[in-house]
Structure formats: structure tokens, C-alpha cells
Amino acid sequence: MSHIRLDRYDLAILAALQRDGRMSKQKLSEAIHLSPTPCWERLKRLERDGLIRGYRAELAIGKLLDVAHFMVEVTLSRHRQEDFVRFEEEVESHAEILSCYAVAGGFDYLLMVVAENIRKYQQNMESWLTEKLGVERYFTYVVTKTVKEARYFPLDEFWSARNFQ
């Protein structure tokens, strides 16, 4: 991030759009206390620099579908670069795997997986594991209730003079 220069207006744009990606140009400029033209130019630069990856709707999945969520710890049997690459490429090909984090500690990856039910989840896991991914073991945790789910990144908590102009 050291090559991308940000100031308080840039941060304000990013924070405002995280909370409301459909905000009009006029409303955005009012929210950050900057006239519309410079605000729009900054927004375009932030998009060009790759700081804004896209705009999307946040769906209330629970109102659409009754799905089960699973947290899965995965440990690979070998720890060679090609084993990690093969596993990560396979993870990318499954839409049911919502997120995958490589972690340090007692296992290699932490996944968030969705399925219609436990039976379908188990069928998926057996299918994925037969593809010779080198999985030594996995542990499944059924999510019984979502207590908190991030809607946006807390930029204000990380604001400091060292990181921004």
C-alpha cells in the first residue's frame, strides 16, 4: 500500500461507499464534504488503483433459502507448494465454498461452506476429497447461529497518520 497515496477524503469515500454502494455522486460529495467534480475524480482514481473491487447487493439469503453453513478445518497430508496450489485451485472451482483462508497453526485451511443440508454437505465433501487433493483430515463445525457478520471493514479503526496523509 505504500505506493498508493490516500488522504482523509479518499478514506471518507471508501468508508461511505462500503456502507452504501448505491450512493449518488451528489450524496457522496455531500457526505465527505467535497464538491462533486473532485469527489468524482477521486472515486475514479480509487477504482483505477484497484481499491474498489466492485459494487454489489448484499442479499438476505435466509429470506430466500434455508441453507446450512459449515466451518471446516482442513489439514493437507503434504506441505509442498504444488499441494497447496492444487488444493487452492480446487477450492476456487466450488461456489459452495464461500471463503477459504490459509492459516498458521494446527491446520492448513479454514473454509466457510454452504449446503442445502448436512447430507448434501457430506456428499460434497466426499466428492471433493476423492479428487486426490491430498487432504489428510478435515473437521466440520455446523454453524447454529450467526452472531455477527461483517458488512464492511472498519476503516476508521485503522486510520492513522502513518498510513494516510
User: Roughly how much helix do the residues carry, as a percent range?
Assistant: 25-40%
Shape: elongated
Q: What kind of sheet is the major sheet?
A: 4 strands, antiparallel
N- to C-terminal distance: 13 Å
Secondary-structure content class:
alpha+beta
Oligomer: single chain
- Percentage beta strand: 15-25%
List keywords for this structure.
elongated; 165 residues; alpha+beta; four-stranded antiparallel β-sheet; 4 strands
Describe the protein's architecture and organization.
39% of the residues lie in helices and 18% in strands. The chain has 165 residues and is an alpha+beta fold. The protein has a four-stranded antiparallel β-sheet. It starts with 7 loop residues before the first helix and ends in a 7-residue tail after the last helix. The mean pLDDT is 90.
Secondary structure layout plus pairing:
Layout lengths: L7 H12 L5 H8 L3 H13 L12 H4 L3 E9 L4 H12 L4 E6 L6 E7 L2 H12 L5 E8 L12 H4 L7
